[in-house]
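Ligand: zinc ion. Inputs:
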Amino acid sequence: MAEQNLIKVKGIVTRSVQYKENDKIITVLTAELGRISVYCHGAKSNKSKFLTPTRLFCFSEFVLTRKKDFYYIKEADYIEAFFNIVNSMDKLFLGQYFLEIINEISVEGERHDSLLRLTLNSLYALSNDMAHFDVIKSAYELRVCVEMGLSPYLLGCRECGVADEENVYFDVLNGNIVCKSCLLKEENSLEERQTGMYLPATKSVIAAMQYVENTKLERLFSFQLTEEALKLFTNITEKYLLNQVGKSFVTLDLYKEQIKS
Ligand SMILES: [Zn+2]
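Predicted complex:
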């Protein structure tokens, strides 16, 4: 008998939930189909060949069938597993935060080629300690916003256009920058002007943001900031992303608790 239509995709497991005694329902971010849910019969069992490729953080190749709104697993092989992430709590929470973001912003039925590549590159960097955690986290947050079509406007002050001010403010609500003198004027005439939520930034922070917006994914984490500037940078990217998504993330809170201790 002819096999039902088989669908072959590669994707990263972004959520894995036990169902009944031995089954799992996983969420997978794929390039071709966007975010999909896959029913994995028996995958919870230690003897199952699906046990590893359906684990959280696994980038696997899947052969699936589709019935109504659900995909069913037929075959699966893992390609890359980012196992190092689970070796430390701070990496684990940060990696889970990345996956939570994906589950929030990705869509079924839409192509997500660059979002998938961004996530794989970032998890790889995290897994292999390729940059400071704050660099990976911030670059990921900001680049996710770019992927959502929400690139901030950073070429100059939104009011006067001046581009080389040393100290500026990033407006989290509107995704643009304002120089100090324009912001002061603004406070005097709030009624006529855009109200916003302003975070301090410097020239080097804005330059790093422009770099992250525009650079090739392979070079995403290759920028340098002083410790002070990195603090401003991470403050901006996190608040900007959370504001655009319109929610907070439990794993982000866990990550912050973890790095404090
Ligand atoms: Zn200005």
